[in-house]
Amino acid sequence: MFLFLSRWLVVVCLSIAVLPVFADSKAIISQCRNLSLDQSGFVECIKLLEVESGISLETIESEWIAYLQGGEGNSAETDNTTIDAELDQLLSTSVSYREYRDQYCRFQVTGLDDVLMSTNSGACRIAMDRDRTSNLRRLLIERRARRVSGNFYRGYYLEANAVGLFQSCDQRQDWSVAAVEAIQQRLTERYDELTTEALEMVYVELRGVVAAAENEAVPAALQINELNLVRPLLESDCQITTVTLVSDTTASAPDDFPASDAFDDDTEASVQATDTANAAADTTNVTIDDLGDGGFLYGYFGAWTSMCAADSQLVCKAQSDDTFSSAGNWQLMVDRSANGNWRVRLTPTTDSHVIGSQMQVAVDGASLFTVPPGSEQILLGSAVTLATGNRALQLLNTMRDGAAFEISWNTPEQTSANLAFSLSGISLALQYFDNRGN
């Protein structure tokens, strides 16, 4: 199923970030305050904007459906059964998005009075609909452009013995370059202007199509259809922003949890992980951290959001927001990358924190193991690794059967910090990884 989904899964890639939704909701509320003379007008403004955002979302979804039904989004080899399946998946994802939006926005206004609950949840839905509409529009534009001129690539280019070679930032593979005479001439002239030494590289952005060579010893060929940019290298070119791990080890595990995070070759989990890694060997050794700019296919299951990478096999993550926190807002994340390994991590979402003592990990009140304190401040956007490898796999198996995941520690002020995450939906979220071919 994932094979045909990968052909159009940009249709269902959703960018649902908690903090931007809050910011956009506040902007919508401010907009309606400015447009209204009184509270009655404010309520009507929220209603009007919600109708408008709903219509815009339905319009772009209809454009996607027309695009697929018209054959533009399908190759000549695509049969009617596959097209029908793609359309069914698009419609199903649209329903899933709306269910998630409504649940999320209801949760955000819990405890408010009826009037505030109605207007704030309305602003939340408007913000999320606008975000999804913008993403779907952007992705449809890219899909159409890709059909005309090929995929967009950025990376390094050099010439050796009158042969051009290109290395994509994403793929990190050398491809020989071919182009029509006019494009090749522009590229060569610009390369000669910028370089003074043999095998000197320049940065390029282009669109084209990669065709694998019959002989594996020969690099694949990139047919350039559009040349957008050629310039000298910058230090920031092709950099990938990775998540800084404050703690990469765990300790003091009970006997029923592995003492080491490493995979043991004698365990069934290791066999599965090795098979997974081998399956990914023909692509790239990608990790979750490498895919900050990549699109993801999303699924929504209770308190959990599950995401699998659009353009790389065997790279998935799932996450859930905390349901109670005395030390700020946090997110629990599960990763599985192309090397077959798993991670369970904790990351702050609203503020940076210092955890000065060991962290106790428990499911449904039963203590499982402790994590030693990190030596650095946990900055916003960074994460603490609670478990990897065998320990992560066993922890996930325990989480599948549990109702609540709990973490506690003592703050530097010697007060108790407690986090709780609902495990409703974690089993389906993990199953979603496999259902999507990842």
Descriptive overview:
The protein is α+β, with helices and mostly antiparallel strands and 438 residues long. Helix content is 38%, strand content 25%. The chain has helices at 2-5, 18-35, 39-69, 80-108, 114-149, 181-194, 268-280, 389-400, 426-435; strands at 151-160, 163-168, 174-179, 202-211, 220-231, 296-301, 304-309, 316-321, 324-325, 330-336, 342-348, 359-363, 366-371, 384-388, 404-410, 416-422. It has a six-stranded antiparallel beta sheet. The chain has a five-stranded mixed beta barrel with strand order 1-2-3-5-4. A five-stranded antiparallel beta sheet has the order 9-16-15-12-13, with helices on one face. β6 and β7 (304-309) form a beta hairpin. The longest helix has 36 residues, at 114-149.
